[in-house]
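pasting for the record
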Amino acid sequence: MDPGGPEIIFVYNAGSSPAAQVLDFLHKVAAPQTYRCNLCKVTYGTFTKKAEWKEFVASLPYRPVFLYKDQFRRRFPELATVILPAIFLRAEGGIPVVLAGAADINKQHSVEELESLLKTRLR
């Protein structure tokens, strides 16, 4: 199932069900100041991922994996207590290690700031 190689795992603080996605979208649009997933807020426009973010992720030397919180917790139950959103690095077959936690991500106000944070952490 795992194609191998190091991964960078982006975990949204949102559910994967269609109902959860609709509610998250409505929340993000109606009350962005109280929306709980800054990773979503910073990297997505109204409907899709921002082009600049897609290009940045594609440039990284890791296989990108995007997971919702329920998917992440099913796949890595040993990390169920990590506060989300979060970004992890995972060596082939290993346990993911936090690269940027919720506190770090929640301080970012733009794609540029998030990219800068990740570049610094990946050095």
